[in-house]
Structure formats: structure tokens, C-alpha cells
Amino acid sequence: MEARVSQALKPWCILGHFNAIQSIEERKGVGSQTNYGSEISKFNLFIRQTGLLDIPMISRKYMWYKPNGTCKSRINRILVSREWLDC
Fold first, then answer.
1. Cα 43 to Cα 22: distance, rounded to the nearest angstrom
2. 3-state DSSP call for residue 24?
3. In whole angstroms, what is the distance from residue 37 CA to residue 7 CA?
4. pTM value?
């Protein structure tokens, strides 16, 4: 006999400064010799396993800048569940 969960999923949202990237294109000038493959894989796995969707930012591609402008990253994110979008 198969057990079924009848509880409806509730909408939820996570937003903030993750200090992680989903692809190498989201970071420029920061440790160009660094291999971010493991970080990228783990962060993408977290997003997939939780079923979250990354809401794109409209105003800017990068959210963190070094004061002299030589380094930049997209580390601020809004991750939401599909139920959140339905609301």
C-alpha cells in the first residue's frame, strides 16, 4: 500500500546574500584562477533538490561590486517555490 501525503505544499521564498553562484558568468574579476565548479554544482543541486526557482533581477546583472569596480558577483537572489508564484 502506498502512503500519500495529503497536506498541500505551502508557498515559500528565500532571499538574500548567498555568496554562491550558479554559473561562472555570474562572477567577474574575483579569483580568475579559482575553480568554482564544486561551488556551482553544490548550489545548483540545492536549488534543484528544494524545487526552487531563481527569480531574475531586472535592474542589474551583478549585485556585489568591489569599491574600485574590478570585481563583481551576482550573489543576491530571490528563490521561490512554484506555489509562491501561484499566489
1. 7
2. helix
3. 37
4. 0.74
